[in-house]
# Entry
Amino acid sequence: MDSKSVNRSIRSQIWPLLKQSGFSATTSRSAWRHHGDRVDVVNFQSFNSYNAGVMGVTTFSFCVNLGTYLAYVPPQWPPKKMKNGVPYPAEYECQFRGSLRPSMAQTHMNAGVWGIDKRGSNLGWSINDVANRIPVALAWFQRFDDRVEVLRILLEEEEDMSNLWGFGRRPSPVRSYLTGYVAMALKRDQIADQEFEAAVASGCFVHLFSSIEGARYRAANQAAVETNSEAGAGSEVVEHR
# Structure
């Protein structure tokens, strides 16, 4: 039993299900779905020997991470993976992050990990359990279809490490940064300028802008980025191992 066996099961049983819902590009462990204004990511995370030992699982155990990358928000740092100008962000590069959890309690200490035993005897059950959880993942992504809901999350919700995180706790600078650009996309100018003012005052973005006008200027080319993302995201496999 090894990680390659897990990869084969993901490729044969999970990626076809996600493809039905528009996830058209995959590697051995990640799948991407491109919309006009965002990218959705599903990632199967494995563990090195040290982390696996700490958690009491095998290295070919896995957790399933979710991420949504807002293409209409100018990135603080461009995604490491780009193809023909189209972003293929890693889950950890997304502004909004979440995860799936096994439907049954696990014997190890991390409730979010599908622990695969050394013989792989429970691999089939684990992959099938993930397949049954795909509707949960799709519902998680659906929240970001509505930019008004995205802004509401940023204005009202706290990070929840069991469901939704990555966008920063209030009054963190990154929360102000994201809220400003989402509000700007919705033409909620008063909110946008308040949030940009907080972002500027934090001093965390001096390499990007030093004024409200500078923050707004960075968004000028985002419409072109969104158009390119929609037109350039094809069905080819980015990488397959």
